[in-house]
Every structure is written in structure tokens, then in C-alpha cells.
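EI: anyone free to look at a 311-residue chain?
SC: sure, send it
EI:
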Amino acid sequence: MVNTEVFGIWGPRRGKGGGGEGNRTPGPLHAKPAPKVSDRHELLESFISDKNSTKGLTVRGEEWLRETLSRFLSWLPVPVEDVGRTNIVDFLALYDAKPWRKHSFYRALRSFWKWVSINHEQPNPFIDRFGNLVIEAPKTPNDVLYTMTPDSVKSLIAAATTTRDKAIISLLADSGVRRGELTSIQVADLDVERRRIKVQGKGGKEGYLVFGSATGELLTRHLLESRPHESLFGLNFHGLKSMLRRLGERTGIKCNAHSFRRGFATELRRKGLSELDISELGRWSSLVMVKRYSRAYTFDDAAERYKPIVE
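SC: here you go
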């Protein structure tokens, strides 16, 4: 479909692949000059504020955008309005030895420049004037990342010194809860009888965690012992990270919130749940993410569950 919007004599030229990126080529007559965006801090804060207003960001999501984009803007050797493809590629090359970090920067930068091109009529360095993508997403390794196992979960619960920490470990394993979701849980969100917790996930999407009877018992004990008023666990992101790190040092078990989420997806596959069921329970937006998080599920796991066709 041809976009009939007109800037002076020429309309914006878009190719078949990039109509949504917001890259514009204004005509020479009557076109307003692109506004200067020299105040990098103000530009970043405006972007984050807009994202919060339109999509809704989790606390951790906002921290991620601010940290990654601040690092790029501090490194940037040219004015923002002069950024081109080479600048993006040169910056990403600094992280060749850290492919996951490199991919994270790519995602943040692509989102940021899409917004800049739309709101400030700046050229988008990720696409050419025909709308074709000119910077491909960095490849990430297919290595199986560390995944929490049921035995490790039991060891961590036994090593935890407070009921609150035991309940957190149990809930991480039982529900696949994200870090930002867990630290945002309020007492009013918890329904022990139905074994559910209402959470705000990525993009402000409302969803529910489910948990088993053992986790329910620990949560009930925590409520009786600590009597929290608003926040269920009274932890922010950094407090959770520190608690898990201390447990990891005490037990020798590698311990971070995402390892529990990978363990959640893997164990549900081993129990025979479909990828669609896992995506709903874990609040993943696509089955691709379920496969990525359950890479520890192997051929041997599938062979164990195999039932002969002919008896």
C-alpha cells in the first residue's frame, strides 16, 4: 500500500520491509527542519517516559533501558542527529565477546531509534531510505544456560534461614515468576486458597502465578510470622539479587531468578505439559520463548516419556 502522506513535494519513501520503523525522507520544500536533539539526557528521559505512558514498563525494564542507552549515549562520539549505521555497528562490536549483552544493546537501540525517527524526524540508522533493515540482529549462542533442578531447589530451601526466603525460593521454582513480578507482589494479590497470585508482567499485562501446596504452606507461614502490610516480601530487585547471591555462596549452587524460570519451563515439559500450556502458565508471549527457556529438555527426556506405537 502506498502512503499518500506528503512532505512538500515528495512523500516519505518506504520499502516493503520497514513501513513501521518511522524513517522519513522529507521533501525540500515546506518541510520543517528536524529538531536538534543535542540534550542526550533529556532525549533519553523523554523516550522512557513515552514508553511508560504507551506500553507500560516494569521497574526492571525501565532500569534496563536507562542503563543500556545511557552507556551508548555516553560513548557516542558524534552528535545524536548525525548518528549513522557505522556508529551503531562500532558500538555493538565492543561486545563481540558477550553475545547476549550485545543482543540486549541491539534491542534497546533499535527501539530507541525507531522512537527518535518518529518523534524527531531523524533518520533511523537501522533502516535505509526504502525501509530495508540494514543492521541485522546479532546471533546468540545455542548453549544451554544454567537451569535450576528440583534437587537444587530443595537444597536452597533447606539452607534458607527465614520463612520468607524459603517461600521466595519455593515460589520462584513453582511458578516461574519474573524478578520484577516477584518484587511487586502485594499482600492483596495473594489468594492462598486458589493458589494464585495476580501480577503485572511485561508491558503492564495482568496475569496470574500458580503454585502448589508446599509453596502455599510456606506463604501462609510467612504471612503469620512477618505480617506484611503491603509488599508481600518487602524486597526490591537489588534485595532479591543479594538474597539469592548469599544463598548461592552458602550452598555452592548457582542461583539467580532466571535459572528458576528456565527450570520451571523444563520441568513442566518433563511432566508432559504442552508448550501452549507452559506459555500460558509462564506468561510467555510466544512458543519460541518457551523453547528457548526449556533447552535443557533433551532427547533423553523425550525418550523416557516415549510410549511404543506397537505393543
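EI: Confidence is low (pLDDT under 50) at residues 1-35.
SC: 👍
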